[in-house]
Amino acid sequence: MEAGRNFHYFYEISRIPRGSFHEERIADYIEQFARDRGLEVQRDSLHNLIIKKPGSLGREQEPPLMLQAHTDMVCAKEPWSEHDFTRDPIDIREEDGWLTANGTTLGADDGAGVANILALLDEPDLSHPPLECVFTVQEEDGMGGAKGLDMSGLKSRRMIGLDGIQEGTTIYSASAVRGCKFRGEFPRDSAPAGAMYRLRVSGLTSGHGALMIGAERANAIKVAARLLRRLSQVCGIRLAELRGGGLIHVIPRECAAVFTAEAGLETLREAISDLTRQIRLEYGETDPEMEVTLERAEAEEPFCLTAADTARLETFLCLLPVGAWKRTAGNLAQVEGSFNLSVLRLEGGALACDLVCRSNYPVSIDELWQVAVTYGETFGLRCEVSMDYAGYHVPQDSPLIRLWAEVYERDTGRELGLTYMHSALDAGTICERLGIQDMIVMMPTTLEVHTPRERMNIDSFRRTYGYLKEILARA
Q: Of 69, 170, 256, 262, which sits 20 to 30 A from 29 (CA to CA)?
């Protein structure tokens, strides 16, 4: 494989741990990169960076153009992986024309965008207008970087976002997002006589909690809740612990519960055998590797919820809406409103549970939020806003979209794809605050983001960099 500048920088930054809220080392690298090249660089306390580069010869007075990418990545791995995301470099593999990682997320979301910007800044003969390169943090967990970014010094009113999903497309519409954090405290009693058991749901397909929310994939927390509710109805169990999911923007692939029951193991297994078969049938196509196990557990937790509170929590989780809430008439693959129950922790009688609401016009994010709040109040749980950021919608005939369409059609003979995306980008916050209405999004084809199966097409990464250089030359 002939590696260009963008490949060089992708491999370089893949050596640097950069999970959300731990972007200081990648910020160190980018800041030093800028200083080594004599470029103006600003860095804030969150580790957002802005690098400014004057226009190339003869283009110094043109309107500036913003390039934007986020430096953090989702840190997910296979259960067998011993990878430490705080210390270890990503182990990149090349397989059949794709870059992938050894049992972990690859970080092409959005390492590809970061690498492309660094490569462009390092091009000695590139023709370009003045560039304002924005590197945001925490995009994968609340988008706090873009929300905390001081934009007062940014002059750009046109933008290329480098955090997309597929080559040959631009995202003209992205969703608004509001996170609902349910909290509750449950009084606990000493565990009654009887054995402790552990129910585990694992092996689900999972995926991005927005991009794949309409694919009808199973949610491990919801599956576990259905099984636990059946056990409560038949055997009268009492919950001690419940843990599901791990990343707020990912459909949870695992959930485990510890509970006490007077019934024996075989009785409990028989109680859920029919429901387990039914669930496997429901998700046989989307989640063929689903596993449900029920085993004896060590009595690690001497306290548990009352039977009434156990039933209340299980019922809440069973009834809470998850998945596509509203689809576009005439295009059922297009989701306009959705919920993703992504992370749940019940420990020491304290519950923390994340439900992410997403909406594209015409569905109102306020309406979805009120649905979430109503469910919480009905079951005696507090609801807090854990994140809240804007979507965006730019005209489909904006100057940059027209230019991108011309470049793509000339190079490939195909029309540019105009994408409506049921997910949020940092671009929404930036566009809203700066009033930007001329924007495109560019990204090499990258599949299964936010999962250990994430992979990026090698030829697409190479081509996308070429498109970027041509657009900058003509912008």
A: 170
